[in-house]
Amino acid sequence: MNLNEIQSILKKKLNTSNELTSSIVEILNIVRSNPRPKKDIMDIIERDSKK
Amino acid sequence: MKLHSIRLKNYRSYYKEHTLEVARSKVKNVTLIHGAMGAGKTKLFSAIQWCFYGEEEYDETPSSNEDIMNSVAQKDSLHGKPSETMVEILFDHNQVKYRATRKFQCFNGRAENGMDFKLLKANDKGDYDGVKDDDVVMNSILPKHLRQYFMFDGEKIQNYSKPGHETDIQKAIKGLLGFDDIEKAIDNLSKIDDEYNTLIRRNSKNKELQDVIDEVASLKERFSKCGSEIIQKESEIAKGQKIVQKIEKEQAKIERVREYIEKQDKLKEALTSYEIKKNLLYDEIAEHTDNIYLTMMTDVVVKVDSLYNSLTQKGEIPAPIRAEFIKKLLDKEKCICGRPLKNIKDKKAIDILLNLYSKQNTQLDNIVTKIPNDLADIRIKSHDVELNLIQKLKEESDFQSKMKSIRDDLKEISNYLKNSDAEAVARKEKEKENVEKLLDHNKAEKIKLILEKESLENDLKALAEKRDKLLSNENEFEDLKIQQTYTGLIKSTLTKLYKIYEGEVKKRVKEAIEEIFSEFMWKKDHYREVVIQDDYVLDIYDRNNRLAREGLSAGERQCFSLAFVIALARVTEKEAPFIVDTPLGRIAKDPGEIIDPRIQIIKALPRLLTQVILFVTYEEIREGEECDKIISPKVGQRYKLKYDKENGCTKVKHIKQ
């Protein structure tokens, strides 16, 4: 999976905001390397949902 | 990733140590490993996978160490000294050199359990240092589950273009292109959403909201169960299909056994006929050899010819020429010095000339006069003898090479027939029927589950809306509501992203297949467009806009499947060696086809890939024939594997280029 391409689809084709794009990219990075990513994803949601 | 060398010791049929260098230059990027059936090609192919991943074949039950260790080496260990089985591969990846080694030992005829894997990385000085988490690093260089797209059996690859291939195609594209990560993210977000629901349910006093949340949880549970059951059914279907394929392969073997026996008879006949022809040819060669002395006279003939010419030019020999010479002088009334004879007062000189002219030809003169004709005769005969002899010797060499090739084929067939168990396979027909029945049942169950899942999805949507409405009236849980909304937003965005990304990747794979397939194919105008449908059915439109996959010949199917695998490697931008066992195994030129598909494949592979290792039988690529001539300029390393009758092991012979 090419994260640059994912970012480009999010911004150009789905018009996703910068905040949401960066949350998603961060989540995809976490699932790639972490076998149990739920807690880390929840931290991101808690942090970014208030923005 | 590019392989440099493979060193194996006491692995399967490889007794003691053998090292094979792998071609890796841009111009010569092919390593060709020739071997008759049963010579050890597949074992060497498996050794590469075993070294990297500890498994010989993808998706197969791992073999025991007892099976892997060479039986002769195992016996050797009975004499007190332990034997070692080892495969070591040197390779580079992203400009860094690595050394992967897998080994185990055998004591007193018993192989130890487990094995030792080491991955070492070269430092700036060229020494090798250990790597932390060897297996993990190896897996990151070329993931274990992706190796099947770089190292595979050419005969199995056809499955990608056979009916029922969708699951394999989907698995390949999703696995290679990282869709798993997006799926994993979506799955985790669902779990997080559940967790928020549980928290709200626990803290809310609204009974209706609690009931809706409970119902959502219950439906979700069934929804997820449906998902697992579908996966379970898919796995059972895949397993069943695999069993059917295995049985069909065995049955095909029976068919092949019959074909091989017929072929064996024909080859034996051909060999006898060549023997007779060869003996006749030897008689002809002997006849020509009787006259070989003529060719030995060539030098003498040339010398005599030149001497004769020089003398005749001077008018010295033979007598008739001399007479002719004098006659001309007398006719012109000129002296040899050019002055007119009329002015010469000394009549004595004229008398001498007249005397010479009137002198009769001797017998010797006649013989000498014939010399030029005789010399020409000898020259023609000697030339004929030489030409005939060369021609016959060439024919003899052709006969020898044809007979050698027939003998190789016969040996190959004999090995193959020795290993076949036709009766046992025939009994499996009944088993196949039962498996197919179960397959049909599982397919029907899967469809039921898919329908149930779709209905649950709709119910869940409606309930989620109801829950959101109820929740919006609640004044508490503000933070939780925001987080849950954000979770939903990320999840729905990821779902949309998945669809777009999947579409783009499919498009890229499709374009790459089209490009590569056209490199393989000779009927370029016949096929118009490749298509990967929504359910991952891979097909191709012909110029009449008809789906044509089912009508592809075996050769075309192989080209199509190869194009798919190479396209995947290209789209993922993963550089790895392309290692194929029996790449042309089942391909033959169809009657009526002008072009041999084997040649198309052989031409295209080195051009399309950075490193190619081919394990071929003598039937697939025969020395001196067209396929061999085409691939030879691209071959950097060539080996021959031979079965050693004495110890039942494989002999490796490096063929100098």
**What is the helix fraction of residues of chain A, given as a range?**
over 70%
Largest sheet of chain B: 7 strands, antiparallel
Assign the structural class of chain A, choosing from mainly alpha, mainly beta, alpha/beta, alpha+beta, or little secondary structure: mainly alpha
Strand content of chain B: 15-25%
Walk me through the structure:
The complex is a heterodimer of chains A (51) and B (657). Chain A is an all-alpha fold and 51 residues long. In chain A, 75% of the residues lie in helices and 0% in strands. The longest helix of chain A has 16 residues. The relative contact order of chain A is 0.15. Chain B has 657 residues and is an alpha/beta fold. In chain B, β4 and β5 form a beta hairpin. Chains A and B meet through α1, α2 and α3 of A and α6 and α15 of B.
Helix-strand blueprint:
The complex is a heterodimer of chains A (51) and B (657).
Chain A: H1 3-13, H2 18-33, H3 38-48
Chain B: E1 2-11, E2 14-21, E3 30-35, H1 41-53, H2 65-68, H3 71-76, E4 83-93, E5 96-107, E6 110-111, E7 116-122, E8 128-130, H4 134-141, E9 151-153, H5 166-177, H6 179-203, H7 207-290, H8 292-296, H9 298-314, H10 319-331, H11 347-358, H12 363-418, H13 422-426, H14 428-472, H15 478-520, E10 527-532, E11 538-542, H16 554-572, E12 578-581, H17 597-608, E13 612-616, H18 626-631, E14 635-644, E15 649-655
Parallel strand pairs in B: 3-13, 3-14, 9-12, 12-13
Antiparallel strand pairs in B: 1-2, 1-4, 4-5, 5-6, 5-7, 7-8, 10-11, 14-15
Essential attributes:
heterodimer; A: 51 residues; mainly alpha; B: 657 residues; alpha/beta; 7-stranded antiparallel sheet; 6-stranded mixed sheet; 18 helices; 15 strands; 15% strand
Offer a quick outline of the entry.
The complex is a heterodimer of chains A (51) and B (657). Chain A has 51 residues and is an all-alpha fold. Chain A is 75% helix and 0% strand.
